[in-house]
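User: If you would, consider this record:
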Amino acid sequence: MKNVQVTLVGLLKKYAPGQSSLTMEAGQTVMEVIRELGLDPDLVAIVLVNGRQKFKSYRLRDGDRVKLVPMVGGG
């Protein structure tokens, strides 16, 4: 099985309690991974794959490192 490492940042961590990162199967799109994790896609503002910004439609490859970053608010 080919794997990718998925890291949830900030408020998204509550969807994977006790884990800062998860291993998911390669070949899926980022959007499929987001849905599989039970995340609301609208909460994910930035997708980084191997340090580069990608669209949620990006198809993950073996060895990719994904970071999902939520919307940040403040004032």
